[in-house]
């Protein structure tokens, strides 16, 4: 009798196990679809990035917050299907947005860890708008080195000494406010006054040779109107 009951219960138990597994599987698939096919933990933010062109692969998703003792930011890159996960975030309210080549920064969206968040990338209206978020090294590569004491190769090597303290090529280093002085030459002379002060400091023995050499290099950008 006992053996007969075991044989009767075993098929029922098997059916229940299979049914439970199917329910869990369906719920997992539904959650994946709601979050752009991305599984996240309780301290992650994840989802899908798309734009008018479809899923955006290889763009940055940036989560920033000022809720913590210091400003905190974490950046990730989307995969080839536009999916992303910003992992292991401290508890806080985050401003999340999309940045990438060919895009302008998307509107910031408030999110918390554990939240599925699909984002809309904004296609740049033209090349000028898109170029505003290009990294400093891109702009530095546009510099035309004038003939003089230092060769372009020497400039390239010496400028690396700046990178530990400066992002050479940022907006502040490549642009002059319009109308600040009567001529562009005077404006650039004013802009590079700090370079000359550092050069004098080197001559007084206050800077290392490589740092001073990099500051002595004077360059003129090819493009100032972007």
Describe the structure concisely for a colleague.
With 226 residues, the chain is α+β, with helices and mostly antiparallel strands.
Structure description:
Mean pLDDT is 77; it is low at 28-36 and 209-226. The protein has 226 residues and is α+β, with helices and mostly antiparallel strands. It is elongated, with a radius of gyration of 28 Å. It is built from eight helices and 13 strands. The strands form four sheets. Strands 1, 2, 5, 9 and 10 form a five-stranded mixed β-sheet that branches.
Q: If you average the pLDDT, what whole number results?
A: 77
- At the first level of CATH, what is the class of the largest domain? Mainly Beta
What's the CATH architecture name of the largest domain?
Sandwich
Beta-strand residue percentage:
15-25%
- Global geometry: elongated
Would you list the SSEs in sequence order as H and E?
Answer: HEEEEEEEEEEEHHEHHHHHE
Helix tally equals 8
Total number of beta strands: 13
Q: Let me know the CATH homologous superfamily of the largest domain.
A: Carboxypeptidase-like, regulatory domain
Radius of gyration: 28 Å
**Structural class assignment:** alpha+beta
**What share of the residues lie within helices?**
25-40%
The main β sheet shows up as: 5 strands, mixed
Q: Which regions are unreliable across 5 or more consecutive residues at pLDDT < 50?
A: 28-36, 209-226
Our count of domains comes out at 2
Distance between the termini: 88 Å
User: What is the fold named in CATH at topology level of the largest domain?
Assistant: Immunoglobulin-like
